[in-house]
Amino acid sequence: MIINHKKSFIFFRPLKVAGTSIEAMLSSACDSDDFITGPDIQHLDQKDDTGRVFEKFVKLNNTDEATGLDRFHIHTPPDILYSSTKSNWEDYTKITAVRNPWDLCVSYWWWCISQSKSWRRKDIYPAKSDSRIDLIRKFRVFLFTLSKSSLDGIQRREGLDELSPTITWFSDKSKRYYTDDMDKFIRFEYLEDDCRDICKFVGIKFNGIPRFKTDQRKLNIHYSNYYDPVTIRVVGEKFKEIVEKFEYKFESDS
Fold first, then answer.
1. Sequential pLDDT tens for the chain (254 residues)
2. Which of 56, 112, 142, 206 could form a disulfide linkage to 199, CB 3.0–4.6 angstroms apart?
3. What's this model's pTM, rounded to 2 decimal places?
4. Which domain holds residue 35?
5. Could you tell me which residues come within 8 angstroms of residue 158 by beta carbon, excluding any fewer than 6 positions away?
6. Residue 14 resides in a domain
7. 69 part of a folded domain
8. Considering its fold, how many domains does the chain have in total?
9. What are the residue ranges of helices labelled H in 52-100?
């Protein structure tokens, strides 16, 4: 999450929508009076996957002086920001990013696999030797397995520290970023064009999009290869509002 007070915009960062890259890009507009939750711990060197350095992409004004802890998680949704602060955000432009839910869920699976502490089911890790049937079976197990989210701190604060199917928690969490008061959307499928437009809108120079976390998905295949009729239907139902709002469709690579 980034809050720029002089240019009056907030960027809310959902899961798995190039949020790290977008935040690094927008951080160039921030100064000492602004707010940045900062990068994930594995990117504290401020370099993207190509070695490009982003000096301003660091945690800024996010440390609670009394406890020494972060005030907000990097994926804090809008309702938590609004309810946890006394500021008036009505005059701020709210920006977030969105992605085709069927592609989004596959990306989230790969992210969970890359985080050994958040997903320990080694038996459903995808492998290069997997057939399409193997991938479909493993992905289905992931979607329906009861688990706790890696964002346990936010869950406990909201009284949601319970087991639930991965697809249920993930869809419920994602939908919280697409409220009626959101002003601008960056579509993952049109990332460069939309980022260029956002930079022009907030009055900063567009210097390209940083490349963070581009190596997590190890199999270079279309997202449709992970799905069967059941999982296609379930993801469509769980993300119904997003599918309808942005007119997303499940598309095959064939």
1. 999 999 999 999 999 898 888 998 999 889 999 999 988 755 556 777 677 777 778 889 999 889 988 899 899 999 999 988 978 899 999 999 999 999 999 999 988 887 765 555 667 788 888 899 999 999 999 999 887 655 544 444 455 556 788 999 899 999 999 989 999 999 999 999 999 999 999 999 998 888 776 666 678 899 999 999 999 999 999 999 999 999 999 998 86
2. 206
3. 0.87
4. 2-246
5. 80
6. yes
7. yes
8. 1
9. 78-84
